Amino acid sequence: MFSLxxxxxxxxxxxxxxxxxxxxxxxxxxxxxxxxxxxxVHAGDFVHLWLHGTAPASLRIVDEAGKELAAGELNWESNDxxxxxxxxxxxxxxxxxxxxxxxxxxxxxxxxxxxxxxPADRKKLEGERLFDDFIAQVTAGTPxxxxxGLLQLEAALKLWDELNDAEEQxxxxxxxxxxxxxxxxxxxxxxxLTRAIALARTTGEPRLLPEALEVLAGEMQKQxxxxxxLALDRESVELRGKLHDREAIALxxxxxxxxxxxxxxxxxxxxxxxxxxxxAAHDPLMExxxxxxxxxLLSASGSPEQALPDLRAALDFHxxxxxxxxxxxxxxxLGNAYILLDDRDEAIRHYRAALIxxxxxxxxxxxxxxxxNLAASLLADHKPQEAFDVITxxxxxxxPNAAVQVKGSYTAILASAEIELGRPAQARERLRALxxxxxxxxxxxxxxxTLRYIAHADHLLGDDDEALxxxxxxxxxxxxxxxxxxxxxxxxxxxxxxxxxxRRVLEILLSLHQKHPEQGFDQRAFGLSERAxxxxxxxxxxxxxxxxxxxxxxxxxxxxxxxxxQLSQLAKEQTRLRxxxxxxxETARLDKQLFDQNTEYQRIEAELRTKSPRYTALTQPEPxxxxxxxxxxxxxxxxxxxxxxxxxxxxxxxxxKTSFATYILxxxxxxxxxxxxxxxxxxxxxxxxxxERTRREAALSKLLFxxxxxxxxxxxxxxxxxxxxxYVPLASLPVPGAKTPRxxxxxxxxxxxxxxxxxxxxxKDTAARAPAEKLVAVLADPxxxxxxxxxxxxxxxxxPSKLLASAQLTRSAKESGLATFERLGSTRREADGIIxxxxxxxxxxALDFDASLxxxxxxxxxxxxxxxxxxxxxxxxxxxxxxxxxxxxxxxQGKPQEGFLQLHDIYNLRLSADLVxxxxxxxxxGGDVWGEGFVGLVRGFxxxxxxxxxxxxxxxxxxxxSELMERxxxxxxxxxxxxxxxxxxxxxxxxxxxxxxxxxxxxxxxxQGDWK
Length: 1012
Description:
The chain is of the alpha/beta class. The protein has 37 helices and 26 strands. β23 (926-929) and β24 (933-936) form a beta hairpin. α7 (247-260) packs antiparallel against α8 (264-280), α11 (324-340) packs antiparallel against α12 and α31 (825-838) packs parallel to α35. The longest helix is centred in the middle third of the chain and has 28 residues, at 584-611.
């Protein structure tokens, strides 16, 4: 039999509804709803109820006198409950249902009986009693109780085997398999769980099979039979999807299997979908668990800022439910995220906070882990004694039976603290005893921590050969993990999170080079520098040569467009919010919506790549080594100067067509401090007078080039920088040791590159395409103000919040220091001058309202060799995708319109440009991601097809920029100079002038890309 109840009806106050005998009753209850059923029985009747639900709920069975005969609850952990009893007297039993959380629950009651008990029924009652005893004994938590409970469970299973009751057998087998798995008996666990699945396929209870699949998948994960686990999880996801029953559980298990297989992007996608399902089902337990796991993957893949909201949500859940172990675990993970965000103070604060609940939970594994993280952070914070004390406690808590990897990691931290405390002999003794033991271990995952600290300690102790062997393993593992990540953002952030691993190998190689200069360790160091640099940009340039959207399901492409549109709408709402008084709660709500939508966009991008036939055919390009660079990229007149910054020492590699030299430089902190001083003096002349500016320039030049001497000759210099050095146009530094002060630019033509390997791909792209048909396209002097004289429509005042139609524009404007956009009068003269030099028949000029976003996105621009933008440029270093170029933000009637060419728009352009000139402010900058450099407009235009880009490093003066551009284009169009040579000549002419000789006026622009 089958019946359906409607939860909208009032419940306990009414006469109870009849409960169908030997049937199933479906009852979806809304939050706070209750329900009552009447069940007539005779004395001694057998009754068995099976309750299944999707949210916490309670069930009570009472007799006519109100005496409770049975009771139980469903919770987020367990969504099934069994009840079996014999009616004590004739009458009508009352079955009461009630939801326990502010969440709807789809309850399902399966009733067997009422009837006079058969021998089989009495066996079933005994089985239920034994199962209840098993639960009670295990819940007590004592070893004796657990063993007794296991015997009770086996006895219950025997009874159900005799009854051939498949549903009860599955339940018992799942618990039995889980128990044996916990005891380490993998063979018995696998056998019981496999049998449970076979039986679940034969029952009439479809919800049992997904649960059985998930439990066995968990056991397979523990046994590292990951392909088998993945197959089980995929079947469970499909089944739960068809049933619409707790789909988040299956996705949670699927995400775990994928993460164990290092398929990080797919795992994050599974967790993201699971999170949506958990929220839709109002399942806070699964929401917390999935958020916690997704956060761990986001942090590990280099996106800790995206992990923070998940971790905070999980922390709130654990605190609300007084789950102290979960609270401690999440606090520890928050500490890990802050370490990756370079916020050591916050990391230490969270590690300390984690110790309180973890001590309360009496969990030695997690407590010792949090202690070790705290110790490592204290060590990095130059507090070796406190670190020593904390890691000593971690070793004590872990105990003598801790895993070899745990002992290795903790002992290595202890030894590093001893080295810092001036006790290298004791540290060496510890490490020498440790290395042979750990070396027999297959290093994976958390075991890398052991290698990191041993390598670091060995390096500090002078054993660079052993340090290199171990540290190289860490980097090799990072390279292997990177290959399975999808999306340039995920890959770049992942390598950024592993920057210390690459720097450590670099420093070890440099030390070995100093000891053995003839053995080629410095060439290996250069190869490592290239391997750690601009990797996702290389992937993008390779990808940019094909249309990865071709052949992809149109529905997915439409979903991508819809998601971008929703992101834009949310950003506009954020702009309107900021333009009026608002609460922190409103801001938090919008920030969360933006974060979730952006996460969805990234998920779609990853899915697009996995389903693109053209993307799957691509191979990741390999960075160039010294010999390949000399053979395929450099010429006799060019030297590559690549900087690699380390924590203890840095390097300058100078590579010529037939030469290679390495110079050891000071540590990263010293070089970057000097670079910031010069950048401040150049970008803001008010921060230093001429004497102080000259001192700063000379100091940085000596640090960087003092050892190079006269070896540079007059050759072209190609700079590859990193960190704060990227902010400084190195061409404008003085020639070191010159009797007559002059910039490097006076002796050398200079260009910049994100990496040496980038140029090979840029040239490959250029060689594969037809030359552009036309010469120059210029977009300049756009209209920003509805009161501009060029507006011919309505000039009535508008709400200031509506003047900027793009929310992204407002956000970038805030960081760039521009509250309003003044008309840049010189840009019109600049544009007219370029067109006059190029000739109107081969050129295109878009001024005023025509300098619009629509014009910039017109495919016709792909037909021009030179593409020139003259307007405001805006930087958002925190969200580089929001950086861009401001075009006309109002139409001819003065109405607001989209006028912001932002980074994702640029990625979608298809250009054949030899050169893009961004005659705007701070266009050379962006989000500084270690290993990638600036993620911003230059990168976007290179992906779109530009062989080289001229961009600025600070807010450039309008008049000086116009003057520079006029001379630059004169050099290219009249004198037929290459872009690199023309820019050099233009900048030198301003340097030699009296009015515009300050570097602020001429040094900001650099050429990035090919010099030919």
